[in-house]
Amino acid sequence: MTATGDPRTGISRQGLDSRFWRVLAAQSLSSVGTGLHLVALPLLATTYTHDPRVIAALATVAGVPALVLALPVGNLVDRTHRGRLMVYSDLACVLVVAALTAAVLVDVAGLWLLFTVAALLGVAELVFSTGLYALIPTIVPRGHLLRANSHLAVGREIGAGGIGPALAGVAFSAAPALPFAINAVSFAASAAAIGSFAIGHGTRPNTPAPDTDPPATAKTRLSAYVGDLTAGVRFAARHRTIRTTLLLSAGAGLFGWMPEGILVLFAKQELGATDVQFGLLMAVTAAGTVLGGLVVPRLAHRTSMTRLVVSTYLIYGALLIPVALTDSILLVMALFFVQGLPLIASGAAVQSAQQALVPDHLLGRTAVLRHLINALTMPAGLTAGGFLGTWLSLDAVWIIAGTGFLIVVALCGPGLRNLEPRDAHQS
What we know:
By secondary structure, this protein is mostly helical. About 50% of the residues are buried. The protein has two domains: about 15-200, MFS general substrate transporter like domains (Growth Hormone, Chain: A), CATH 1.20.1250; about 235-425, MFS general substrate transporter like domains (Growth Hormone, Chain: A, Up-down Bundle), CATH 1.20.1250. About 75% of the residues lie in helices and about 0% in strands. The radius of gyration is 22 Å and the shape is globular. The chain has helices at about 20-45, 50-60, 65-70, 70-75, 80-105, 110-140, 145-175, 180-200, 220-230, 230-240, 240-255, 265-270, 275-300, 305-320, 330-355, 365-390, 395-410; strands at about 5, 10. It has 17 helices and two strands.
């Protein structure tokens, strides 16, 4: 008879108890909802306008909260019951999407409503993802963080990158309001999954006791609040390993996003890809990403966290360059599949190291730095790729991106020596 875990504690042989599996279910359901509205909102917008600037702006507005509200949200996560905050975030999404569903049904929706909904969902998703990042180390043993984060990344990829978008297209073709109705149900189910354990359990951060003497003036109180907001920034600036992982994310994000903006042009003009082949090109990357996420836990037992991070980033960066050296769509598909393999591996490894190294009461304020970096590097990388493709060539974008990616990894390598979980909470 094979042991599968301890039924008294709910801990499986993977070292993950029932709370994690419910969080995984909740995050996967929430990701399906995200994938639904990421596709359904632009589709609905095209019924009101065909102006590409408006459609692009609608896609961009969801990322604005990460720039404007990142620090306040991080502070909120570090001062509040994290599980309940995630439940409230999902319930807010239910209300917002339900209101949009009703507006579509009675034909009173308009572009102003779509932009409002996109912005509100962006805020809610920022709160949810930051709360999730900070919650995981409180319910997962430190030695199992990589496994847990890999499962979460796979669930997010399948939900937001696969099931959600596919379901949105089919549902929208049946009835414009249907994907939003399904969206509301997915967020409600996510809230129920987290609420089944979070409401009655302690998932509040272990915040150090405040000073006995409260600030006496408004100016002092403001100064104290600003100090709270920027505590994560100060910690990251002092902690070499955390600082290096953030710099690695910034550099890799900048160069990694460069080819994405010109990908459809490259596929059509340089590879002669058809619409179907372009879709397959995107699909093989996602397939590699999911497969890589399933393999990550096995790799963790055979190598150090530092080697895992450096090797996966090197593989991804190195495989950007040969894309420019071939005109074979099949070879590029193969490269994209292999390139997808380390995506979850690298992200899960870096996130696990950060969660293990950052004190509990700073997890939220450190997590939002990743959102800030992503919100800045994505448009910067896409824009740079577009200009480089115009000034030089589409092939040159891949070579520059791959070379820059490898240089970033080489420069950050020395600062990644202490990524192991046993080094947790050292500053």
